[in-house]
Amino acid sequence: MSLTTCTVHVTQRPERAIYVTSELARALRLGKAKSVTLKLGIKHTNAQLKILKKDGKHAYFPSTLANAIKIPQNSSCMVMCNNGRDIQFGPLIGIMTGVTGSGTRPFGSRTELIRSYISAGTDRSFMFAFSPQSVNWSQETVVGYFLRKEGGWTRKTVPLPDVIYNRLPSRKAEKMASMDSFKQRFLRRGISLFNWSFFEKWDVYNLLEGTDAFKHVPESHINPTSSQIKDMLDKHKFIYLKPTGGSLGIGIYRVTYNAKRGYYARFRRSGKNVLLRFNKFEGLMNLLNRQKGRLNHYVAQQGIRLIEIDSCPIDFRFHLTKNINNQWVVAGIGAKKAGKGSVTTHVRTGGQLMTPEQVLKQIFGSRGDQVLDTAKETAIKLAESLEKKHRHMLGELGFDIGIDQNEKIWMFEANSKPGRSIFKHPALKGQGKATVNHIFEYCQYLSRFRPRREA
Ligand SMILES: Nc1ncnc2c1ncn2[C@@H]1O[C@H](COP(=O)(O)OP(=O)(O)O)[C@@H](O)[C@H]1O
Ligand SMILES: [Mg+2]
Asked: Which InterPro entries match (predicted)?
């Protein structure tokens, strides 16, 4: 197998021959003029090969051939050749998402997120975003949004790709049974699809149960009964109640038990932090049962006494990605300090973004680095365990990680479609770039467009 990069040009020549420069032919170990198969994504076509005595690595497609395999644009990409006659261009990578806008913002508020992934593939792949509605199964094509060199977006019909990264934005849409069979149709065609769906908190707990990493997950119960809540409060003194399919801290209660003063419930209502006290357990249960329909689809989780700065709890977002060797790496870490009186550390409820080094130095002094290294190792162990138990491929994860006052590491939540807000911190921008690079390289791994180690 030989792999290199080249520039693809579409020309107006009439014949069915592809012209490649002698330098490219050498790099791909192609023989003299003969017939070859050209591939892009899952499409292929036969063509005559002609060699141009010219420097540089270029491939010139007459428009008939370019149309046959649907080359989207003149651009640089990778190219590999297996046996001197199958020439594959690519990788062709699709990010599956919702098209919710138009013009310069086709993906609405997520346009920047999608752009950052696609930019990482510029000049070394054909990378695009698409919505499930634009797949044409009978033609085996999809309408992709590509970034133009001059800026802005352009739509092109391309073959079904080599790899799909699932970034569908709606939990509700994704849960429909039809979505599952839709995704299976890609797998049946040999197309890799990673990050299959959103995680629910309870599913993650179940997946990790019995693995090495389970000791880092706080005790949890789904749809807790009042006696389970009471037992957990007796045992742990405080608990979190969280919607299993929730995010952004919405609908979360923090409940505390104090032998002398009774029960406290902290939560957010109408944009404000609320704190209520109840003498009796029944009073607390009345509140919980009144709001949000009897804690249905809620997880009760052991509360963790987080490390604090200025009496505000701190937790961390660990952003993990796979790399080109299919290994997990901790590519970015942000620390989040809770706003005063807030149940969670989200920035939208007054939380403050910091670097982990800043926080851990302040709390653990010179041992801060060591604590961070241990947390990174734990995060990798969690990702490996989760992936082993999950039925589908994973390429990117966002863990909400806490360190308790005894330095023990805990994982509250695993996100399979992690946001990128931590990378707004000026000190974390470089890590943000690293994450999208890794995702590109993981796609390279999945599509086999990567250098092989010589035997
Ligand atoms: N068991 C817990 N102990 C202590 N703090 C917690 C616990 N669970 C959640 N939190 C705090 O609440 C935040 C939000 O919880 P999380 O499980 O991430 O839910 P969401 O999906 O709403 O982000 C966490 O980042 C953490 O600061
Ligand atoms: Mg969270």
From this structure: YheC/D
